[in-house]
Amino acid sequence: MEEAVFWEDSLDLHGFEREEAVLELDVWLNQAFLQDLRAVRIICGWGAGILLKRIEEELARHPLVESHRLDGPAFIVGIIPRSNDGY
After folding, report:
1. Are strands 74-79 and 65-71 parallel, antiparallel or unpaired?
2. Which candidate among 26, 38, 49, 74 keeps its CA 20 to 30 Å from the CA of 7?
3. Residue 26, pLDDT above cutoff 90
4. Per residue, what are the HEC states of the chain?
């Protein structure tokens, strides 16, 4: 299994199987939320577009994602802001 490459505000999912990528994405989005990052980049690559499509599906329904848009072989993702009640 590949290991995710983490940068301050980017996640590179090259080489991951679809469901492994979704698991890494979920963990990483939660970490980004807890670090109060408001925008992040998720890199999928082009390939056959299978991973790109699966990640887009996940971003569309993830509760921490405020918005997302395709930017070449990556997504720019807006993260919901943390509220003052500790969540």
Report:
1. antiparallel
2. 49
3. yes
4. CCCCEECCCEEECCCCCHHHHHHHHHHHHHHHHHCCCCEEEEECCCCCCHHHHHHHHHHHHCCCEEEEEEECCEEEEEECCCCCCCC
Closest among 45, 47, 54 to 23, alpha carbons compared: 54
pTM score above 0.70: yes
**Which residues is 79 bridged to in the sheet?**
65
Distances (CA, A) of 21 to 76, 81, 82: 16, 24, 24
> What pLDDT, in 10s, does the model give residues 38-76?
999 999 988 888 999 999 999 999 999 999 999 989 999
Cα–Cα separations (whole angstroms), residue 36 to 19, 20, 47, 51, 83: 26, 24, 31, 26, 10
